[in-house]
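Justification of resources, computational component.

The compute hours requested in this renewal are based largely on the per-chain cost of generating structure records like the one below. Each record pairs the submitted sequence with a full structure-token output. That output is archived, and it is also reused by downstream analysis tasks.
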Amino acid sequence: MKTRLTLVALLVITIALPLLLPNSAPSAVAQSPPLSPAGTPPGAGPIWGLPRGMPASGHDAQGGAWQSDPSGDRILHYSNRRWRSVPSPTRSYLHAVAMVSAAEGWAVGYGGVILHYSSGSWGSVLSLTGNTLYSVAMVSAAEGWAVGYGGVILHYSEGSWQSVASPTSNGLSSVAMVS
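The structure output for this chain reads:
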């Protein structure tokens, strides 16, 4: 019940906030500023040699950073003071990355694409929607949420993603969850 109330509160904030703030409606292409690697203050110098406008970004608990390439064909991982390219199983634009640990994470994007990172590589996961997913948040390795265009809400538990009834048909641009 607590998780459901938290989700409802976050959905209300996500839906209502753009209506209350002038010129704050989410753009068709949600972009997140890259996260700085451990020990590098945000905004200090260039963004680690990456081009501006990189779409999805995320970080893991060990201080690594993840960044998708706009072309969708690779995902970059910052670890041990260097970037390395990890092949992506999709060419779709990715909007969000959520890492559970350095060894496990999720990415979502255009056309309902869902990717799972485990065993050192990204793999495609069956999606229950063709709608673009804009945000993903993982409470733990066993539970997470994704939201997107048309009010789509997906819940990950017991090893699979399930559709959840949405209180809106408006696009949901972000989700954040706590345990």
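The chain has a mean pLDDT of 73. The helical segments are 2-20.
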